[in-house]
């Protein structure tokens, strides 16, 4: 592989924030292709350790001295303009790209780029498509926003013209991509620290569809009103999917005792085949349909689509069963938007349980504040709600919103909800209250998964 802005593999690329799930994936792709790679992050992790073993030079902490013998600097959207490495790169007039632009350049080296976008379901749908393509021996390059067992991580470097990646809409970053197949799983209000409103979000997805060439494909969820409005602007081939509408539909849906679905796949009223999933919930039926549409658009044989889906058992942190202790099953999920939380709890109702304890860690002050009312109503299927403090991520503390405020409103609406301000307090509460047969869910995009691990190890 060679990139148009890099004529040889002796070039050195430096990643500011190399320990992130997406940045580390890009670094791995370069290392696989014999580029020299360096990078920095605020703390060491399993990811940075792995990159070092693969040959990357990793610095812990950001320092202008890390910019040494560098030909290109790549940074994430979370990096501030006063970052010392970014400042040094500008001072030296080095080429600089943000993560999305750099990923777009890598995509240019492939013909069949599959870019999976949407407010929810990107990681799971990307993982399902990856399973299908691997089962069909298409040898794809894969970049996914979670850890996938079949590729032993979040990245795989293939030798074919197929490239599969998530396409995140945050800061309109996916507009720097080059999709041949673009997927839109749904459109809802999120990232309102960047977008003005839902109309601004919808307009950005319209721009995304315009990136797809006329002979390419838009795969779109037909039951979503916002997505339907976007479809009308598409200038490429369109394949729609859904349960109540769409060219490709799931019918005769049944769930087993683990909450996983079997269903028949129809195209314009004609049955194509039967599919079965090994991940729970109706939302995963929709993710499966999106993946099926991608396969159909690129002429993947039905048998490979069926087997690829059947052999997908989930991505880490997506309804991931972490273990069982004293008859209590511990499940972790990355859900951090009210719609995702509701979908996870809906799936949990079909999972064997006596009571559902949901430990939620809100993710970012902006999201908690702008979607406050939705957060107060999305836990209806939980028997007990336990709230941790807000995970700030890229944001600074604000007094405008807190986890306590969210808890007060949930209690006012009549649900049992408890606020704690340390993981240790939460684990003590769980140990005192969980009973044999209960289901413990840890939910959120921060480090809430540690609570389940602490409980299992207690």
- Give the CATH level 1 class of the largest domain: Alpha Beta
Class based on secondary structure composition and strand pairing: alpha/beta
Shape: globular
How is the CATH topology of the largest domain named? UDP-N-acetylmuramoyl-L-alanine:D-glutamate ligase
Query: Runs with pLDDT <50, length 5+?
Result: none
Number of separate structural domains: 3
CATH homolog superfamily of the largest domain: Mur-like, catalytic domain
Overall pLDDT metric: 92
Strand content: 25-35%
Strand order across the largest sheet: 8-7-9-6-10-11-12-13-14-15
Give the helix tally: 15
The number of strands is 21
Q: Tell me the radius of gyration.
A: 22 Å
Largest sheet: 10 strands, mixed
Summarize the structure.
This protein folds into 3 domains: about 10-100, Rossmann fold, CATH 3.40.50.720; about 110-310, Mur-like, catalytic domain (UDP-N-acetylmuramoyl-L-alanine:D-glutamate ligase, 3-Layer(aba) Sandwich), CATH 3.40.1190.10; about 320-455, Protein-Tyrosine Phosphatase, Chain A (Alpha-Beta Complex), CATH 3.90.190.20. The protein is about 30% helix and about 25% strand. It is built from 15 helices and 21 strands.
Structure description:
The model has no long low-confidence stretch (mean pLDDT 92). The chain has three domains: 12-98, 3-Layer(aba) Sandwich (Rossmann fold); 110-310, UDP-N-acetylmuramoyl-L-alanine:D-glutamate ligase, CATH 3.40.1190.10; 320-456, Mur ligase, C-terminal domain (Protein-Tyrosine Phosphatase, Chain A, Alpha-Beta Complex). With 458 residues, it is of the alpha/beta class. 32% of the residues lie in helices and 25% in strands. Strand 2 (36-41), helix 2 (46-53) and strand 3 form a beta-alpha-beta unit. The strands form three sheets. Strands 8-7-9-6-10-11-12-13-14-15 form a ten-stranded mixed β-sheet, sandwiched between helices. The chain has helices spanning 21-32, 46-53, 84-91, 99-107, 122-135, 198-209, 225-231, 282-297, 302-310, 338-349, 365-370, 372-377, 403-412, 423-433, 449-456, and strands spanning 12-16, 36-41, 57-60, 72-75, 96-98, 112-117, 141-148, 153-156, 162-166, 181-184, 217-221, 237-242, 248-255, 260-267, 270-280, 320-325, 328-333, 356-360, 384-387, 417-419, 439-443. The protein has 15 helices and 21 strands.
């Amino acid at each position: 592989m060679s990139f148009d802005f890099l004529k040889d593999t002796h070039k050195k690329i430096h990643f500011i924030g190399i320990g992130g799930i997406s940045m580390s994936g890009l670094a791995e792709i370069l290392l696989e292709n014999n580029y020299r790679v360096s990078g920095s992050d605020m703390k060491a992790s399993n990811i940075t350790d792995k990159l070092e073993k693969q040959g990357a030079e990793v610095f812990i902490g950001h320092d202008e001295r890390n910019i040494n013998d560098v030909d290109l600097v790549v940074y994430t959207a979370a990096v501030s303009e006063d970052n010392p490495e970014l400042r040094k790169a500008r001072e030296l007039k080095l080429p600089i790209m943000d993560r999305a632009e750099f990923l777009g350049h890598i995509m240019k080296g492939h013909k069949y780029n599959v870019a999976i976008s949407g407010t929810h379901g990107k990681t799971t749908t990307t993982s399902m498509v990856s399973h299908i393509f691997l089962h069909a021996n298409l040898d794809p390059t894969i970049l996914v926003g979670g850890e996938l067992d079949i590729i032993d991580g979040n990245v795989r470097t293939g030798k074919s013209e197929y490239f599969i990646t998530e396409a995140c809409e945050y800061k309109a970053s996916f507009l720097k991509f080059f999709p041949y197949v673009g997927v839109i799983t749904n459109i809802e209000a999120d990232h309102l620290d960047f977008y003005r409103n839902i109309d601004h979000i919808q307009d950005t997805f319209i721009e995304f569809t315009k990136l797809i060439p006329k002979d390419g494909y838009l795969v779109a969820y037909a039951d979503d009103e916002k997505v339907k409005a976007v479809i009308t602007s598409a200038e490429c081939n369109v394949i729609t999917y859904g349960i109540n509408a769409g060219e490709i539909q799931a019918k005769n849906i049944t769930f087993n005792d683990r909450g996983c679905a079997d269903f028949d796949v129809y195209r314009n009223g004609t049955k194509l085949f039967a599919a079965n999933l090994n991940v729970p919930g109706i939302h995963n039926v929709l993710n499966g349909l999106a993946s099926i549409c991608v396969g159909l658009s690129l002429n993947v044989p039905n048998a490979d689509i069926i087997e690829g889906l059947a052999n997908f058992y989930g991505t880490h942190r997506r309804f991931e069963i972490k273990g069982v202790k004293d008859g209590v099953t511990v499940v972790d999920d990355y859900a951090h938007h009210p719609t995702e939380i509701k979908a996870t709890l809906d799936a949990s109702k079909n999972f064997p349980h006596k009571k559902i304890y949901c430990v939620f860690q809100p993710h970012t002050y902006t999201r908690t504040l702008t979607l406050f009312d939705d957060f107060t109503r999305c836990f209806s299927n939980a028997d007990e709600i336990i709230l941790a403090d807000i995970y700030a991520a890229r944001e600074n503390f604000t007094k405008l919103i807190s986890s306590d405020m969210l808890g007060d409103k949930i209690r006012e609406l009549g649900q049992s909800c408890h606020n704690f301000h340390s993981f240790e307090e939460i684990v003590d509460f769980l140990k005192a209250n969980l009973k044999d047969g209960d289901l413990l869910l840890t939910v959120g995009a921060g480090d809430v998964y540690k609570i389940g691990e602490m409980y299992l190890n207690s």
